[in-house]
Amino acid sequence: MSDARDPLPDWPTPDWPTPNWHYETTAVQSAIPRGLGETVGIPVHQAAAFQFTTLEEAQSEFAQGTGLSYARLQNPTVRALEERLTALEGGAATVALASGQAATLTAILSVCRAGDHVVSTASLFGGSAGLLNNVLPLMGISATLTANTPQAIAAAMRPNTRLVWAETIGNPAGDVPDLAALAEVAHGQGALLGVDNTWGGVGLLCRPLEHGADLVTHSLTKWAGGHGSVMGGSVTVGTRHDLTRNPLYTEGGESSLLSVRGEAALGWRARWFGAHQLGMTLAPHSAFLIAQGLETLALRLRHESATALALAGWLDARPEVGRVSYPGLPGSPHHALAQRYLRGGCGAVLTFEVPDPAAFLARLRVIRIAPNLGDTRTLIVHPWTTTHGRLPEAARTAAGVTPQTLRLSVGLEALEDLQADLAGALD
Ligand SMILES: *Cc1c(COP(=O)(O)O)cnc(C)c1O
Fold first, then answer.
1. pLDDT digits over 92-101, tens only?
2. d(CA 246, CA 338)
3. In the beta sheet, which residues pair with residue 218?
4. Per-residue pLDDT for 11 more than 50?
5. How many angstroms does the Cα of residue 101 sit away from the middle of ligand 1?
6. For residue 35, what are the contacts with CB-CB under 8 A and spacing of at least 6?
7. For residue 427, how far is its CA from the centre of ligand 1 (angstroms)?
8. Per-residue pLDDT reduced to its tens digit, 73-124
9. Any idea which residues bear N6-(pyridoxal phosphate)lysine here (predicted)?
């Protein structure tokens, strides 16, 4: 049980409100103060601690301050990134963390404790499935992974289910959940809907909070950082969420999380758990690189999505290529939901099957074999033996992975060079 009176401050309110700008404007203009001598751009505050000049200042900071005392709790560069992420996702507050994995763990522990239950779609990033199947049970939190339909999710709900979990676009199956229907199922039972929006590009392709989700997470390592050079993660909480049926938040009368923290309770607990208690804090220089990456995310991801669509169509027409999965293909079983929930593109990732993946990979000359996504360079992996290799076979199949599947994360190279590389490897 968290101590709701722990002297970690309530979520700091932004220094200035972010106006109702378009995505591209928010991405470059948010979280930078205007004023004489202010930096143009987000500066790096490479510091572990911040000063007080009197004992009284220190006492007051520890009692109800801004968190600007010790960098595990708060750092101005990390805080600027958090404000930018909140604005881009249309949320209420964000905690930035050291990795996407840290963000997923923090999101779940913000809502669940021992004895609680999570229902998740099975087409998940391998690390998320690992947390749900192997790590959370150690803490007494159980999970059911099931098919990516509202019916299957509803059937798996239990009285102690506190969280429904999905990915905006399933990894690597390319399936798009019916977010509004999942929100209805979750809320109907007093649970929250959490969405890993990594593939939704920080609110560019999809803003799950607008479709009923209560919190979104990101691996900022992917399209946010965008250059394959930095790791990070984040949890953004929405402006509306009902925790009145979750005992973790209501128990304890006057000192319950909801009584003490009010509407800020969920965001408070995410920061308290992820940064303050578990110490999965994001480094300031990483925050700077990610904030900079966000400034070109819209340009990059729209371009990469267009290239991915062209490559998916081209691969689909090749007789040597087996099943091609990309939600942007008109023939995809996920096309209708993609049309409904994604805007400006269907993302930069596609999967396809080849008869001999090892021979195919050995012939590539442009595309590199690496287990990352959202890099400026096009990367390819064999999920069966790498990213999803530690899952039981049935779980791999449920996640849409076969021994022939290859996952391509499309970068910024010219379409013609990528097509020629793939053609050379197929011949
Ligand atoms: C990569 C990834 C993660 C984990 O993020 P890390 O930054 O590698 O810890 C979580 N979810 C999705 C969808 C991812 O692609």
1. 999 999 999 9
2. 32
3. 234
4. no
5. 6
6. none
7. 33
8. 889 999 999 999 999 999 999 999 999 999 999 999 999 999 999 999 998 8
9. 222
Asked if 421 and 311 touch (Cβ cutoff 8 Å), the reply is no
Cis upstream peptide for 172 (omega within 30°): yes
- CA of 181 from ligand 1 middle (Å) equals 24
- Spatial contact of 28 and 285, defined as CB atoms under 8 Å apart: no
Phi-psi region of 253 (alpha: psi -120 to 50; beta: other; left: phi over 0): left
**d(CA 219, ligand 1 centre) in Å:** 4
Instruction: Tell whether ligand 1 has an atom less than 6 A from the beta carbon of residue 100.
Output: yes
Which structural domains are found in the chain, ordered by start? 23-285 (3.40.640.10), 298-426 (3.90.1150.10)
Position with higher pLDDT, 347 vs 391:
347
Taking the centre of ligand 1 as the mean of its atom positions, its distance from the CA of residue 261, in whole angstroms, is 30
Instruction: Name which of 340, 342, 400, 330 is nearest 181 in CA terms.
Output: 340
CA of 93 to the centre of ligand 1 (A): 20
Token pair belonging to 51: 């000063």
Average pLDDT, the chain: 93
* pLDDT confidence of residue 63: 78
- Tell me if 407 CB under 6 Å of ligand 1: no
pLDDT surpassing 50 at residue 1 = no
Q: What pLDDT is recorded for position 5?
A: 62
Q: Which among 101, 231, 388 is the best mutation to test ligand 1's pocket, defined by most ligand atoms within 8 Å of the CB?
A: 101
Task: Pick the residue whose CA is nearest to atom 1 on ligand 1.
Answer: 219
Q: Is ligand 1 within 6 A of the CB of residue 167?
A: yes
